[in-house]
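INFO batch 0412 | record 1 of 1 | parsing
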Amino acid sequence: MVALKHAGHLQALGQSLKESVFPEIEQLDRPVHLLVVDDEADDGSILDANVEASQDPVFGNLKQIPRAIADLWSPPSQPVPESLFATYVGYTATPQANFLQEEHNPLSPRDFLVTLRTPLDRGDESVRSSTYSEPKGIDHYYTGGEVYYRRGRTANLCLTTTASASEDLANSIRAFLVAGAVRLFREGERLGPHAARQKEFESAACAKALAPKPHSMLIHPSALVDDHFTTAEDVLIWAGVTGRTEARSLVASGEGYLPDSLFRLVDSEEEKWAIWLDHFQASANEIHGEFNTLVSRQMPDWLTVKRLLQEEVIPGTRVAVVNSDPAADDRPEYSPTANIDGTWHPARDMSTIFVSGNVMARGLTLEGLTTTLFLRTSDSPRADTQMQMQRWFGFRGTDIELCRVFASQDQIDFFTSFHDVDEALRNVLAEAMRDEQKVPSPIMLQGRGFLATGKIANLGNKPLHPGRKPFVPLINSGDHEDPNANLLVDLFANAPSADVTAGGRLRGRILEDSVTLGQAADLLDRLSYDSYHPGRDNQQGELWSQVEARVAAVQELPDGYHLYRPPAPAAGADASPVRKDCPYGIPAYLRLWETCLYRHVRGLFVTGVRDQLWSMADLATKSRQQPRFWVGIRYGSAESPLAEGPFAELPFDIHTTQRNSVDGLIKSTWGTNNPGAGPTGYRGDEYFDYYHRGEKLPDAVAGDEPWRPLSSDGQILFYVNKQPGQKYPTVAVGVCIPTGGPDQFSAYVQPVRPATAA
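INFO prediction complete | emitting tokens
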């Protein structure tokens, strides 16, 4: 059965099952299986916990579609036959909202998650891949984001629009019409769209065989219906239709064919048209090199293309509006239609320029889509919605060199980022599919400038980066000797160090040699805290394991290698509740940075550079720019230096800080903060290493302390703390991290207060 995803339709279907099917099942002496396939499962089948919480539980406008679907096999008012076994499969290309919704939705994924692979020239039998190798070649490849935004970049499949909207419109239509002539030339014996439109065929099969294959263009001006009609009129007026009234009449009648007068433009602007043959040939050469095809596809000569434009393509191309307005075309027509006399007319949309909006964002396919002019912009883009708008994806390998997407650079950057985080999700799911006993809980990624979905309210954006100067709040009690004190003493006893003086005072001590990212991570991981042993079986562990899966999808990690390495609880002991600011997340981040210097990992952005994807960064440059970390000890204000214990064995005196700590948490963090300090002053502890090196400090902007800039070094600064009456000194630590490293942005749902019943 096929049912419209509408509450009334679904409830009627459920009632029919209860009345007519369930009683029959009761009489059968065998199991009966019900399979429910929910196509476009992210549309209509989502329950938003925040929205539902704000509704009155009795009289509120609670969403019924997900409940009506679940009621098909589990109606609340009637027992279900014991022999009925139901399986619900939700299918979607954009699962962001499905993964972010709360489990109170009966349709939330809980038993299995599967990511389907698409054919390309890469991939093997391993599941850790979003593609599989298709031996039949490029004609059978799926040309999605990987082709348009990454591997087809040098082929210029995506072109940036200019400041002239009228010239962008004209240039994109020229590209479409010239591409249509090239495709028609390649089809050989088939008729052109103009000739086919004048002809009747003896059968539908004959019409399909002799008429040209569909050739389509999409113009997406905005979500506003009026803009669609205005844009369609603009196309016809540019082509030579005299006046907006006549253009509107042609569009409304469904007969908005390009006028013959357009060919005069071809004559007068011949260079602007003919140049597209050069563009397409250059693209074909790049595609040949990137995908290792047998030969580079060649273009016909300009005179042949010009003849086909005049005789077939221009007079055979129609302008149509597809939207919710009654005056618009209902849907594209790609099948022949029968005439009263038994003959057949070819498909209406053999060569069509479609103008549309939101209707293109859900399940509507434009066959033979070659050219897209995407003019839509959004102040708050949503990844799932705009991914659905990318109708140019598909199996277009036969003509990929002729395909073009015209959009603003910001929009192309968004599309590229959407694809990157989508690939990251696929990598995580592919890795999770190795464990058939565990259903993953994938972390949904976003970007600085976009959210994952608009179907879930109150989404927050959580970065992976620990911040520009994270300070570890955990500190040992001082009731017994701090193991971190021995770690610090060993470090400074076995390496040369120097005093740091600034503002006329001795501020502390620093190692004379800096350490690498990996060495800094190992040092921070060696710190231990009496009351904190979370292990990896927790939310932080899941977060970092998914990051690891994406890293390993590019290049395998050594066996047993983990980015996140917190101490496990002692045998028989309970794990500590993991902290959101887990101190072992800082070395995990530094270790991620180090591993990413050799991998184009998906779903990561570059800190400090707007919207730059790590997967498209120059890794040789990133390797040169990687930071090293200076390790220091900041002295405190205690009058007397430590005279006993391990610190007394060092060849320099340590004056302790005297900060309060409560329940294992230090109450103050970075010391000495004076943004206005001049050259002879001391600006703050976060610049401790700068004073050692004698480097100029980063300029503050409007009184705010900046991030350490790209290519600068980082810092690990220890504080030896001993409160009055405390038996042993303890160690606290802060870290300063420069920009230029990898980062991700996880979506999370911020709860709202539920409504109360009336």
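INFO post-check: The mean pLDDT is 91.
INFO record closed
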